[in-house]
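We modelled the chain as a single entity of 392 amino acids. Its sequence is:
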Amino acid sequence: MQISVEPGTEALRRAVRVSQAVNRVRQLPTVFVANPLLAVFIGITYWDFADHSFLVGLVAAMLVLWTPAALSWRRLHSRTRPTDVSERNEQRAMLFSCLAGITWGVTAWYLFPLGAMEERATMVMLLAGLTGGSVAFFSSSPIASLLYFLPFMSSLFIQSVRYDTAAQPVLPSAIGVFILTSLLFTRRSWQQFVDNVQVLVERDHALEEAKASEIQLELALSRMQDLAMVDELTGLKNRRAFFDDAEPAIAAARRRGQPIAVALLDLDHFKEVNDTYGHAAGDIVLKEVADRIVQTLREEQMVGRIGGEEFVALLPDTTPAQALVAVERVRKAVGGSPVRLPKGAEVLVTLSGGITLLKEGEQVEAAIDQADKAMYRAKGLGRDRVEVFGNV
């Protein structure tokens, strides 16, 4: 009789162990009451036929045997459902069921010959009901169920064959058929239990996949949003992000009553870099220049790339004179050392810059236009220099 979980994944085996443990906790109150109560009924039935000390001992043994089960239920029933259960948990249940089954088997072996036909039939009915309850209650633990009911049902079957005096062996036949039926239902109940657990495992797996897909989708959307706001090559704010983020920074500086400067920076002769070394080398130069700009300016001074080789900087709490000092540092940082290219090549690039003051009520675009004029004046005066809009 196949009562293993094979073939199955580790997730299924783990889920089966957890469900077995949870089901046993639910079933413990019923079996704790049923076994001592049945022992009392059998004791009453055989009181006039058997030794009283044996009958009292049977009831006491059932109370003692099932007391740990009651204590376990009291300890476990209020706990949350575990996520994993050791295999030893099921092994302990099998050992416990085997001890209980052997106790009932010894009882059936000893008491069956002592009673008349009526007492024997009563015992068979009571223990058959106990078997049916075992198959129903312990459907999640088939081996434990078999170790429980087979000892006493086998004992009943053997004794009924030995002491049956009827012309037709009705009682042994009924017990034999009941044992076979119990075996069949044990197997079918186990298969149904595993199938139900498999459905739950597949459902949980599907939910995890859906959750993972949702997370991946969120990450993808976040990545798309980042790409929409960040220049992919340099990591600086792109044109859209720069203008969006400039407004709150400008508003904060206005509330403090502080001046705001805008600077436009443009690489000199950058087309020659692309023509000489290729566009891949030009990308390396742009990224290195962007890094030098960010490293030179303060953290609160916002930098963006708004064109091929054009960079813009918003400098809150900065006058044009202060901005000139800051942008001069940027110019020297960019042109002070060459950019290393693959295969050992180096290229020295310079930049020209224009600075303007962002006036009260003036839009950033208008200030950038003024800075652009100052920047072109710097190029006209020989490049690699910085000019302030309005200064002659």
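As a brief sanity check on the tokenised model: The mean pLDDT is 85. The CA atoms of residues 324 and 355 lie 7 Å apart.
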